[in-house]
Amino acid sequence: MAAAISDAPRITDIPIIFNLPAVAIVMAITWILVRGVKESARSNFWMVVLKLAIIMAFLIVGAFYVQPDNWTAHGGFAPDGFRGIGSAAAIIFFAYIGFDAVSTASEEAKDAKRDLPFGIITSLVICTVLYIVVALVLTGVAPWNEVGTAEPMLTVLERAGSQGFALKLARVFIGLGAVIAMSSVLLVFQLGQPRIFYSMARDGLLPPWAAKIHPKYKTPHVTTIITGVFVGAFSAFMNINEGVELTNIGTLFAFVLVAIGVIVLRICEPNRPRPFRVPGSPVTPLFAVASCIFLMTQLPWVTWLRFFAWLAIGIVFYFSYGYYHSRLRNNAR
Questions:
Q1: CB 205 within 8 Å of CB 325
Q2: Whether 180 contacts 55, CB under 8 Å
């Protein structure tokens, strides 16, 4: 009997076939986004407040158990050299994608020229500082090779002496923080993508129904719902690591195109009104292109294959519909 029980599969060993909680979260976010930007901003505000509270609680507790010798043990901060830093940066880039998504809501900002740059840069600085401080506490309490990848904060708390009920309580709060963190990121992502589709439809690159606005909530509800359905379907079955890598390479490629576009427009349309300025052009855009391409090269080859497959689908759709219906192209003829 004991042998049979010990050989039985644990819950963590059972593969996830359908991720129902992920689908439920995506559908809830979609509903909030359909109702309007103010409701979305209010929900996101409280999620961020709770997320920051959990992070600050971890930092305060963990700071008392930091041992500076751990920062130099087992190779220090860069045990695998610059190659390890590059590979890590290509993955952690996922945590920085939400900042650019804010720009897609520029038409709904009161003073986009002032508010968007300030919001993006300020939040970028704050989050970067938090990432660095959390990493310092994690690696200060335990050497990097003992922190683990699945639940690093819990590993640190165990080393700090948390056991029994205290550890279980910490597991609940950290797990809650992870769910809230991912949900707040998803909210920003799903806020931006429908508005990209909306702008494309308004320019003729997508069918007219994609540019419809909800009569009551004044949001692009059609593209918001379509985005929610697609995100929910993929979240139900896709491996999160593969999803992150594919998201990273797609976003990095988009950044490359944007940076090149800045240079091209400066040359082709020097008199175009520019409420958003890029200092140091063309050096700054070229540096952005080089940085993005470098991070893309650090991702696995299978991610490149998936990226080219999706890119091919997009090109086929563009030349079969968008190219012929583009208002910019038709007006230029």
A1: yes
A2: no
Half-sphere exposure at residue 195, Cβ-oriented, CA atoms within 13 angstroms? 21
Our measurement of the distance from residue 234's CA atom to the centroid of its chain's CA atoms, rounded to an integer in Å, reads 15
Pick from 138, 28, 148, 166: nearest CA to 77: 138
Contact 32, 187 (CB under 8 A): yes
Peptide bond into 215 cis (omega under 30): no
> What's the Cα-to-Cα distance from 323 to each of 205, 310, 313, 317, 332, rounded to whole Å?
7, 18, 14, 9, 13
User: Which residues make Cβ contacts (< 8 Å) with residue 333, sequence separation at least 6?
Assistant: none
Domain spanning 19-238 has what CATH number?
A: 1.20.1740.10
Q: Which two tokens stand for residue 319?
A: 């030349």
Q: From its phi and psi, is residue 273 left (phi > 0), alpha (psi between -120 and 50) or beta?
A: beta
- Residue-wise DSSP of 271-323: TS--SS--TTTTHHHHHHHHHHHHHHHTS-HHHHHHHHHHHHHHHHHIIIIIH
Q: Locate 250 and state its tokens.
A: 């797609």
Residue 190 and residue 34 in contact, taking contact as beta carbons nearer than 8 Å = no
Residue that is written with structure tokens 């929610």 in the block: 228
Per residue of the chain (333 residues), give pLDDT as tens. 334 334 444 444 455 577 888 888 889 889 988 887 776 777 777 877 888 888 887 788 778 888 888 888 777 777 888 888 888 888 888 777 767 666 766 666 677 777 788 888 888 888 889 888 988 888 888 777 777 655 667 666 666 665 566 666 766 777 777 777 777 777 877 887 888 888 888 888 999 888 888 888 888 889 999 999 998 888 888 877 788 888 889 889 989 999 999 999 988 888 888 877 788 888 999 999 999 999 999 999 999 999 999 999 999 989 999 888 888 777 766
The DSSP output letter for 104 is: G
What lies within 8 Å, CB to CB, of 232 at 6+ separation is 22, 23, 26, 27, 30
C-alpha dihedral over 209, 188, 246, 258, to 10 degrees? 80
